[in-house]
Design goal:
heterodimer; A: 253 residues; mainly alpha; Ferritin; 10 helices; 66% helix; globular; B: 160 residues; alpha/beta; three-stranded mixed sheet; 4 helices; 23% strand
Chain lengths: 253, 160
């Protein structure tokens, strides 16, 4: 069953990313800078939550606990999300840049997974990829708009957000202990392959936006999340997310 | 014994909870119907978007409608074995969306280019002199648009 541990680890990493970024995106509900953006971040949050649920459901078929139990009762150290998704929403520039960098990686990850040897995952990937296309479409529009057609201030703020978020984004590609197995079994082509494609995919958009890719001296600087080592921001998020569940686990709303 | 055809027909009575002009069959979210030897109806459904919160209501509505029929029981499953895409919306379904003031999703072949959203057909005046205001609307399956011809804001049903 070694191969199943590899698959489960991949599913936990993906599902936890979706769940935590969904929660962060939902924090813009009611606070977006304009109504359309409020709706956009809320919709993206809802999509991601649905995607995390679908991934947890696959884990359930592999013998893991039901989705609610997995989402609401694990300790911080059991979460396998990358550190990028944990950071507070910051200003809209930070959230927009994280959305751009994260979703560009996501759409490529699901594209790769459409060819996965695990049929259940491949099928879901086709579906999810179609939805994330909308997220990427949204992110690209704003990055280019604010980077190249906005004001000097909007350009400067996008560049500074890129400088801040880009190094964090490499945490997405922290390899797991199962990389070789995932690749050998044809489950997933691996984090390194994904990272290369991501760097390639960002280039034309950033160029159009007139933004410069910052130097990153150590891409491993924000690793840890995939092994359960998180930033100081994850636990407070989990406390808030699980508050109702902890008061009344059978609550329905 | 109830036939699958009779069940498909009955399912035309079950409407989308958020767009009450269109049936679940015309929306394309019912993917399979069969009746087992013990006279139990089995219906398979798939959501438009993975995170669609309406799917549980749809499931319940389907079950309730079919329990009116001479069946031993009704079993409704939701899965992604056959996936929804906007090409599954029937011609009748597109008319019903228009009736609700929603621009129907344009049919496409091969890979969907989201640039089709830039000039969706206005459901009020039929003009394509329109712009997309946001790919995200009041529900996951809708986008926001504006028509320069009749100066109306409108929503579209997203192609997927």
């Amino acid at each position: 069953m070694a191969e199943q541990s590899a698959l489960k680890d991949l599913l936990f990493r993906m599902a936890d990313d979706e769940l935590i970024i969904a929660h962060r995106n939902s924090e813009w509900t009611g606070l977006g800078p304009i109504l359309e953006e409020d709706i956009a971040f809320s919709s993206i949050a809802q999509d991601k939550l649905g995607q995390s649920y679908a991934l947890y459901r696959i884990l359930e078929t592999l013998g893991e606990a039901p989705a609610d139990t997995i989402a609401f009762t694990r300790d911080e150290s059991a979460f396998r999300c990358c550190q990028l998704v944990e950071y507070p929403i910051g200003g809209y520039d930070f959230s927009l840049m994280r959305h751009f960098l994260f979703d560009t990686a996501e759409v490529l990850r699901y594209e790769m997974l459409e060819r996965s040897s695990v049929e259940m995952l491949a099928r879901l990937a086709t579906k999810v990829r179609g939805e994330i296309k909308y997220h990427v479409f949204h992110a690209h529009t704003w990055i280019v708009q604010l980077g190249s057609s906005g004001s000097e201030e909007s350009h400067a703020r996008m560049q500074s957000a890129l400088n801040e978020v880009y190094p964090l984004a490499f945490s997405i590609f922290e390899p797991s202990a199962f990389e070789e197995e995932l690749i050998a079994e044809g489950i997933f082509a691996g984090e390194n392959a994904l990272r290369d494609r991501w760097v390639e995919a960002l280039a034309p958009v950033l160029e159009k936006a007139g933004l410069k890719v910052p130097e990153v001296s150590d891409i491993t600087a924000h690793y840890g999340g995939r092994r359960g080592y998180h930033t100081e921001y994850l636990q407070p998020l989990l406390n808030e997310m699980t508050e109702v569940f902890r008061i009344d686990p059978s609550a329905e709303w | 014994m109830t036939t699958p055809e009779e069940i498909w027909e009955a399912l035309r009575d079950v409407k989308d909870p958020e767009i009450p002009t269109i049936s679940l069959v015309d929306l394309g979210v019912v993917t399979d119907v069969w009746v087992s030897d013990d006279n139990i109806a089995h219906v398979t459904m798939t959501p438009t978007f993975v995170g669609c919160p309406a799917i549980d209501y749809m499931k319940e509505d389907v079950r309730r409608r079919l329990l009116d029929m001479p069946l031993a029981d009704v079993d409704v499953q939701v899965n992604f074995d056959m996936q929804w895409n906007s090409n599954r919306v029937t011609e009748e379904g597109k008319k019903r969306l228009l009736e609700h003031g929603l621009a129907p999703p344009p049919a496409y072949e091969g890979i969907l280019e989201l640039t089709v959203l830039n000039n969706m057909e206005c459901p009020y005046c039929g003009s394509r002199n329109t712009v997309m205001r946001s790919p995200f609307g009041p529900t996951l399956c809708r986008s926001l648009h504006y028509c320069h011809n009749c100066s109306q804001a409108f929503e579209g049903f997203k192609p997927l």
